[in-house]
Known about the structure:
By secondary structure, chain B is of the alpha/beta class. Chain B has 7 helices and 10 strands.
Amino acid sequence: xxxxxxxxxxxxxxxxxxxxxxxxxxxxxxxxxxxxxxxxxxxxxxxxxxxxxxxxxxxxxxxxxxxxxxxxxxxxxxxxxxxxxxxxxxxxxxxxxxxxxxxxxxxxxxxxxxxxxxxxxxxxxxxxxxxxxxxxxxxxxxxxxxxxxxxxxxxxxxxxxxxxxxxxxxxxxxxxxxxxxxxxxxxxxxxxxxxxxxxxxxxxxxxxxxxxxxxxxxxxxxxxxxxxxxxxxxxxxxxxxxxxxxxxxxxxxxxxxxxxxxxxxxxxxxxxxxxxxxxxxxxxxxxxxxxxxxxxxxxxxxxxxxxxxxxxxxxxxxxxxxxxxxxxxxxxxxxxxxxxxxxxxxxxxxxxxxxxxxxxxxxxxxxxxxxxxxxxxxxxxxxxxx
Amino acid sequence: xxxxxxxxxxxxxxxxxxxxxxxxxxxxxxxxxxxxxxxxxxxxxxxxxxxxxxxxxxxxxxxxxxxxxxxxxxxxxxxxxxxxxxxxxxxxxxxxxxxxxxxxxxxxxxxxxxxxxxxxxxxxxxxxxxxxxxxxxxxxxxxxxxxxxxxxxxxxxxxxxxxxxxxxxxxxxxxxxxxxxxxxxxxxxxxxxxxxxxxxxxxxxxxxxxxxxxxxxxxxxxxxxxxxxxxxxxx
Amino acid sequence: xxxxxxxxxxxxxxxxxxxxxxxxxxxxxxxxxxxxxxxxxxxxxxxxxxxxxxxxxxxxxxxxxxxxxxxxxxxxxxxxxxxxxxxxxxxxxxxxxxxxxxxxxxxxxxxxxxxxxxxxxxxxxxxxxxxxxxxxxxxxxxxxxxxxxxxxxxxxxxxxxxxxxxxxxxxxxxxxxxxxxxxxxxxxxxxxxxxxxxxxxxxxxxxxxxxxxxxxxxxxxxxxxxxxxxxxxxxxxxxxxxxxxxxxxxxxxxxxxxxxxxxxxxxxxxxxxxxxxxxxxxxxxxxxxxxxxxxxxxxxxxxxxxxxxxxxxxxxxxxxxxxxxxxxxxxxxxxxxxxxxxxxxxxxxxxxxxxxxxxxxxxxxxxxxxxxxxxxxxxxxxxxxxxxxxxxxxxxxxxxxxxxxxxxxxxxxxxxxxxxxxxxxxxxxxxxxxxxxxxx
Lengths: 386, 235, 440
């Protein structure tokens, strides 16, 4: 700490240069913050909730439905605690641009299986007793300004309504919240009742999209999944049971190798950044060689000079990097608002940690060469300007 | 009688640094006839470089009039001054100020870029100038491949290549050893004597001043004439 | 008085910057502006004395680049990064869009159930499919049979070749007229599937992306093996599919209907006849579109998303690159202060000095742009990837680095160079000559 004024003086020596370098570091880390948030969102949230859940779907594909009779057969598999089921409805609210998941579920079991959905008890009760009832997440309700008591029409895409209308009506009876920030995604869906759905549709009655299974012991999840699949082996409708996390991951992977694209961009960005700040640091040290020589003359040790120079570059990276991450933090909600909720990602704590590690690493990488040069200075040469 | 080539009347220069007023030159009057070789001496901060820069059209006086080569230059615009410098003044600097990326030949050609001469004629003129300073055989060398004295001679070739009336030398030997300095000074003297170039040279070396026709001393912004024409006077 | 003198250069900087910004915006909007501005500029450079001076000074600057390789590489590499990312992302969008839209044209129409936004969410009874095929406006062949195919669209989960992870494969069951409706589809290996047998043909793209689809192998669906008997090419999104006989697939999957009917039109204008006829039939509730409109719509959302994200990322990188270029050029100007002052003393005016700094930055920027576009081209042109398309299954496509995209990238590079060079150029012009001359 005692040398802090020295570091600051070094950075303030050429204010324009320092400011420009800080800004380009900030730009790079702002980009890192946003892209890493996207990457985290696509590689499925790191959360403890749901580790005891399996998703059972048709082996052929998620679009292939399964017989309702499977419900009881899955429930009887040893190790299975409770089973709920769900169907993708694919309804559109006003405009295809307003896309959000809307799912027909077995109400009581589904809510039992998802304790992370925080729904007031009286609203839960209303959902269980209202046939046309629907519940939505807080984020979705905020997006369209919905309130409990609203009637929400969804235009049918997959399932025309038996009554001849091309839309279905739902009564909003509850709004749930999710406390964990990385699970925000589930706040953007609408859930409604399977019985209303199954009676109203003109095709596919008595079939199920996928089952959600809670296992008694999360450590036994793999064995239970295999046992379920074995049940239906060699039948017409074979199943694939896998953990909820695997299911989400495989889903994200279908969209494309987001991780690869993000990594490639980040590599390009950071390569440029290292080059840029490395060059700036080298330049700044070269210009200060006589000053460093003076410090040496006074009696500063080589080791200390090395540390001072590396600390200066790391400080530069830290200031710029934190500025950039802060900008990303501010920009993401703005992007969410601008894209009317389509692009909704948040920066996870791990992004901040990775960012910090990168700042220190790059700071050391770019600081080391000029630091070594400063350390090896011969006082006589440096003072003479050689 | 013909007007002198350089004619200063009541020239003052004041710098303001915050609240402080620094008077670098105080009401200087100076005539330099054509064909003169004038040495300007004085301690650091006496204003000799400021005076030189003003005569060369690089700096403007706060007060007074400045007539060089028949033109009043104290109120000329930047662009007009640039054109005027290109036509009338040749520069020799203490640190030569050659462009390190260019060969000696190309460095000498630089001022000719400002003329309408064709590339072939530019080359020819530059070759003549290099020959005049005795460096015809070094035309293709880069400045880093020449000694200090040679670099200064290239700079002198650059200063005379466009045939200016006035040659302005700012400590031309300040960075040279004695032998090279003498070579350079003899060259300047020859240019003055044989080619009729008017010269103004700032120096703090009395030995260098001996090569001039006359020497003027500046002290705290005031001119003191100490010696008439001829070398060695005042010693 | 003193205050106004202090602020005057700032004001001038702000003025020049805003002018530059306006110029850049205009240029992005109207790329041809480059010719309008650039040609006179070139003329100025080559014919006028100041232009020649500029070239001479620029040459001096460029000749010193080897001595400051590290610093100049910041400009070049920084801009190369921006242009590389920009061109790669746009090439991805262009490739996806081209692959999907190429499947559509004005001579065929697709009929879906009303409200369905893709084939997969549509469904017809068998009788409806027959009604649609018999409607007016549908072209007929020499035997007077309507040229139309009722397609069944299924999704199968198949492991991907590259990662081994499961991905969705589109399985299309087609009618006997499918080849006439889609003449771009041609067999390149093996033979066509035979109706009544569990046989499939595989598109070139699907064959590349998925494992287990080589001719002779079996694709398991609902506990039955389907033999791959041929490979087809079409140059569009159908190449990401496998095809089989609609009736055979429907029977195996216990389906009693179809997802879409695609018909050939007697002429492009006949779409209206067809639409009116189907709307008038009370037994049908369908949407009719030309395949061009349908496939254009299918590609729009993802294409727009990739474009916006790519441009956003490149824009932020561009900001960083501008700061880097500013840094480098400020340093270059201050390192060359004495040189510039010497030139000014020799009688060079401010204009060529400003112009040469700008020209140098733009030259470096152009080099960076070419490098970035070149890297994007070598790495990504023709690079095959796939993503989830409208039918909830993989669409295989190739990055397309087109000349237009490269030109756009170079345009960005020059704009970055313009901003990176403008302020340092002004600083070069404003350097105090008398001070710089005496620095050793």
